[in-house]
Amino acid sequence: MSRRIFDEPFKRMALDLAHARGSIKDVAIELGISSNLLSKWKDREGIAKTDATSLSEDQQLIRKLQKELKEAQLERDILKKAVGIFSKGDGRYSDL
């Protein structure tokens, strides 16, 4: 069984998605990778966790809204890439 090699843009996208959704496990399942691998990438990036209980209500709301915005932006970017892939097409998807 050969090891899969992931490029830096994929790792960054996976980490951003995990950060936006707040769940490494869910993102790992969705992307078909190990949650341990995603956790290692996160550790290497040095992304620090902030204790949500020490934040004021306003700070928690800002954090929640930033998370939702980041997730929406990631989804938009993924859809843009999909449109690009399908629009290049070789005619296989023209019937859709």
From TrEMBL:
Keywords: Coiled coil. Residues 55-82 form a coiled coil. One of its GO terms (biological process) is DNA transposition. GO terms for molecular function: DNA binding; transposase activity. Transmembrane segments: none annotated. InterPro entries: Homeodomain-like_sf, Transposase_8. It holds the Pfam family HTH_Tnp_1. This is Transposase. It comes from Pedobacter alluvionis. The lineage of its organism: Bacteria, Pseudomonadati, Bacteroidota, Sphingobacteriia, Sphingobacteriales.
